[in-house]
């Protein structure tokens, strides 16, 4: 059985993985979720100095502190950035990386590179106006839906997401990934693509083409961008299959 380390995306904490972790446990796996610095129950630990390196260190230290081996490291959304960085540090502790509706970051890349310059500028303005110069509040759903599918989230789940989300330390979006970040060649690579991402992969977007080829293994999950909330049992089933 696998040792899963589940890393939440922007604005989320370990709480978002509760149902998926429970389902993985029913499959016989060990599933541990962590909260990154500055988020959820660790919100007070964050500050203007919190950046991508902070979150990479969070993941690395979590695995080492728990003395985990043969780790399957799972990244949702934003977590692709720190997970890619941590994968380069975990060496022989790491067996597999799984990107959930996300993809690995290249050296020198940052989260703001995934959006048009005008959208990145708008985020910076929100941080200045509403986030004390260092925190990015979660946008309203009508804004999120422009870039991320809300499929599968019922009204109650949206309410939970709104109530429990915490502002994201903006330094995690502005700092670029170091050149040495990447998993080793022997690490199993898995992609779980949700509905919108599946469409991008199937239309042959050049920068994503490598994800359709070995050594990558791709699984499709027909739900929106937050499958740990909208389809936790289905997500756990795919993770179980990938690790088996």
Automatic annotation (TrEMBL):
Residues 4-237 form the AB hydrolase-1 domain. GO terms for molecular function: catalytic activity. The lineage of its organism: Bacteria, Bacillati, Actinomycetota, Actinomycetes, Kitasatosporales. This is Esterase. Pfam families: Abhydrolase_6. PANTHER family: AB HYDROLASE-1 DOMAIN-CONTAINING PROTEIN-RELATED, ESTERASE_LIPASE_THIOESTERASE DOMAIN-CONTAINING PROTEIN.
